[in-house]
Design goal:
The structure holds 2 protein chains of 2 kinds. Chain A has helices at 74-83, 102-115, 138-144, 159-171, 183-186, 195-200, 208-224, 236-247, 258-262, 284-296, 311-314, 331-340, 347-354, 356-362; strands spanning 2-12, 17-26, 29-34, 43-46, 51-54, 56-61, 86-91, 119-122, 148-149, 175-178, 191-192, 204-205, 228-230, 252-256, 301-302, 377-387, 406-416, 419-423. Chain A is an alpha/beta fold. Chain A is globular, with a radius of gyration of 20 Å. Chain B folds into 2 domains: 19-136 and 292-305, Aspartate/ornithine carbamoyltransferase (Rossmann fold, 3-Layer(aba) Sandwich); 139-290, Rossmann fold (3-Layer(aba) Sandwich), CATH 3.40.50.
């Protein structure tokens, strides 16, 4: 099976390509890329006016399978990923059971092959049951397909355990991803500690609860030589520490979520739990730092932390609602809105944040268009107007703060292994 | 769940209520207070008021019940002792039950900040917040204002010291919003772990101090907050030395203006936040606060049950 993608603006930052080129795929691989390709009898995609980019990679999602299938499954989550232009996602281990063994990793890999629309790379747990006591079967999980380790939302408080995990993971070439939050400092918190938490009478999650753990992890990275990736960085101080660490040559990378660069705690409309996540929406100075960090390379990539929760769990007293928002379908549009249409960054840089730069954080084999490589491609528009209607989401959950938002530009078609797995025309939105 | 059919009149917090409406409520409170105690009114005859209390309360609950009955309304109470941390009927189920009852007003007390706001989003019934978590307690602020006005005549330019655990106090929040709208100067004081540094950003005219003598100096009103150890997740101050630094004594009262008054939302912890000598002194307005509570709640019930078109 072949596809000829004609007339698009191919942007492949890793290869330094930004030109109007045709792309031909064959048997799931990139067969040719040139000015004017002809392939009679081949299915042709008219990409004129569109950007043709390497398939987007989201290194931080929650697919909820196994165990929490009422909120999301690998099938539904990867369909939402495809609708967001992502051709590969890395899923966090906080399933039931926790992905702390080769069996669970293998299950996820197998389910993804049978039901997934896009490529799925499991992230294994750092500790057994993410309980923070004993190391999980890190080597065995890697052998079964895990691409990194993290205890994500149940972060490792024991610095001794974290140090051992970093040393051990480094020997297997695995990156340690940390959700940096000192649980003693954030205890009882619901939103960012600031004027809003005081106004609303909600518990505050202070910025320092993130900063002290980022500092710890950077010190441990220097000590162990492990590759450390800071998940969903959200404070100006943490971003500055990562900047300094990179200057010192430490092997550290960082991601930021679209909601953390698009919203602050001042956007929180009363007690709407679709704005409740960890880390919380921070202050103005923090999102300015996040944008600056994306522009100067301190922050390597955009990751969604797509965290589906069913309606009834979000229909409660604010303090009882779980943390987390969905984000796969709105990520690119938010990046275009905040970073590109404001003139802050070039399209090439923006594409890089979703592709090669994201892949490099975990050493994934994605994010580049190369002859003979897998035909994973994301076609998107920078101009087409659309609005996000969360009732039409392909996710099983609807906990997005971006319902009803008007966007300029977004995904148009998603191609995985030479197959069109999603298009805007047939998908959830009319562009 | 469908959103509310119309925009009912709610009293969810002082922050969102314009000063003119607050003045109206205070006027009506004065009016009801002046009526002979045994006056039976039919202002809300045939109306159903549901008192929904998810948290233990004696004073506020009985005050609302008396207010509803004096206005001629039918008042029923639903009291659930569940806290936000224990299992109970979910708010969504409560919502459905309430919709079926179709009351004319709901009075709600809940341990979670924003719980009445959550219900109000989906109900077309007027909602009165009788205290939500550590957010607001608007009728307390109104009755405190009525108490101060009876003695001082005006709130404008008054110096009010609010002493205690500000961050966990819904009484403090509502009072700060109300006093600020009326031009008072507010000196907030308490252990540094309970008085947010950015408190002055909450409303105009708010200043901070951790020194109680500084807070009460030249004050016209000293407003004490109840120490609520049960509302703290962790110990935020060493409780044994609380009284030494933040308990109100006659010596503090002597630093205030000669005609200064002392308020406390009750129930008081003698020897914890206030000395018995002060609590029982002529300066203490604690009993008139209780009396004013009924009058203010009558005014609030009347206000939310009226359409607003006839004013």
């Amino acid at each position: 099976m072949s596809l000829l993608i004609k007339g698009g603006r191919v942007i492949d930052p890793a290869s330094g390509v930004d030109a109007r080129l045709d792309v031909l795929t064959k048997d799931g691989k990139i067969a040719a890329m040139d000015r004017r390709l002809e392939a009679p009898g081949t299915r042709t995609v008219d990409a004129s006016g569109l950007v043709v980019a390497p398939g987007f990679v989201d290194i931080h999602v929650h697919l909820r399978e196994p165990g929490i299938e009422h909120a999301e499954t690998i099938e539904s989550g990867t369909r939402a990923a495809a609708a967001g232009g992502f051709t590969a996602v890395c899923c966090m281990p906080n399933t039931i059971p926790v992905n702390d063994s080769a069996q669970v990793t293998g299950f996820i890999v197998d389910r993804a092959q049978r039901t997934g629309s896009v490529r799925v790379h499991p992230i294994g747990a750092i500790s057994k049951g993410s309980g923070g006591k004993r190391l999980a079967d890190i080597g065995a999980m890697r052998a079964a397909g895990a691409v990194a380790i993290s205890d994500d939302g149940l972060p490792v408080m024991d610095s001794g355990l974290m140090r051992r995990a970093m040393k051990y993971a480094a020997s297997f070439g695995l990156t340690v991803i940390d959700h940096c939050e000192d649980l003693n400092l954030s205890a009882g918190g619901d939103i960012h500690e600031g004027v809003q938490s005081m106004r609303l009478g909600l518990g505050g999650i202070p910025g320092c609860s993130e900063d002290v753990m980022v500092a710890r992890d950077l010190i441990l990275a220097a000590d162990t030589g492990a590759r450390v990736h800071i998940a969903h960085i959200s404070t100006a101080a943490s971003i500055e520490m990562v900047r300094q660490a990179k200057r010192l040559g430490l092997p550290v990378t960082a991601e930021v979520t679209p909601h953390h660069f698009a919203l602050t705690d001042e956007h929180l409309p009363g007690y709407d739990s679709n704005y409740k996540m960890r880390p919380p929406l921070r202050a103005n100075a923090d999102i300015e730092a996040a944008i600056a960090g994306l522009l100067d390379g301190t922050i390597d990539c955009i990751a969604t932390d797509h965290a589906p929760h069913t309606g009834h769990t979000k229909m409660q007293e604010f303090e009882r609602c779980p943390f987390g928002v969905t984000g796969l379908e709105t990520a690119l549009a938010l990046a275009l809105k905040v970073l590109y249409h404001t003139g802050r960054t070039s399209l090439g840089k923006l594409v890089s944040l979703f592709t090669d730069s994201a892949s490099r954080c975990l050493g994934l084999p994605h994010g580049r268009i190369r002859r003979g490589g897998p035909a994973d491609l994301t076609l998107f528009s920078t101009e087409r107007g659309w609005s996000y209607d969360v009732s039409r989401t392909l996710s099983k959950s609807r906990n997005s703060p971006f319902d009803g938002w008007e966007f300029r530009g977004g995904p148009v078609a998603t191609i995985v292994g030479g197959e069109i797995v999603w298009t805007a025309e047939a998908g959830i939105r009319a562009v | 769940m469908p959103p509310g059919r119309s925009n009912p009149r709610n009293l969810l917090g002082i922050e969102s209520i314009p000063r003119a409406d607050l003045e109206h409520l205070l006027d009506r409170g004065r009016h009801y207070k002046a009526l002979p105690r045994n006056t039976k009114l039919n202002t809300l005859a045939g109306r159903l008021v549901v008192n929904l209390f998810f948290e233990p309360s004696t004073r506020t609950r009985t005050s609302f019940e008396i207010a509803a009955k004096r206005l001629g309304a039918d008042a029923i109470g639903i009291h659930s002792q569940t806290t936000s941390l224990s299992k109970g009927e979910s708010l969504v189920d409560t919502l459905n039950t309430l919709s079926a009852m179709n009351p004319d007003a709901i009075v709600m007390r809940h341990s979670a900040s924003g719980a009445p706001h959550f219900l109000a989003r989906f109900l077309s019934t007027p909602m009165i917040n009788a205290g939500d978590g550590r957010h607001e307690h608007p009728t307390q602020a109104l009755l405190d204002a009525l108490t101060i006005l009876e003695v001082k005549g005006s709130l404008d330019g008054l110096r009010v010291a609010i002493i205690g655990d500000i961050s966990h106090s819904r009484v403090a929040r509502s009072n700060i919003h109300l006093l600020a709208k009326f031009g008072a100067h507010i000196a907030a004081c308490g252990p540094a772990t309970t008085v947010p540094r950015n408190l002055p950003e909450l409303a105009p005219g708010v200043s901070l101090t951790y020194d109680m003598r500084e807070a009460v100096r030249d004050a016209d009103v000293i407003m004490m907050l109840r120490v609520q150890l049960e509302r703290q997740n962790v110990e935020v101050f060493p409780k044994n030395e609380y009284f030494r630094y933040y308990g109100l004594t006659l010596e503090h009262v002597a630093l205030a203006r000669p005609d200064a008054i002392v308020l406390h939302p009750g129930p008081i912890n003698r020897g914890r936040e206030i000395s018995s000598e002060v609590a029982d002194s002529q300066r203490s307005m604690i009993l008139s606060q209780v009396e004013n509570g009924v009058a203010i709640r009558m005014a609030v019930l009347e206000w939310v049950c009226s359409t607003g078109e006839d004013e």
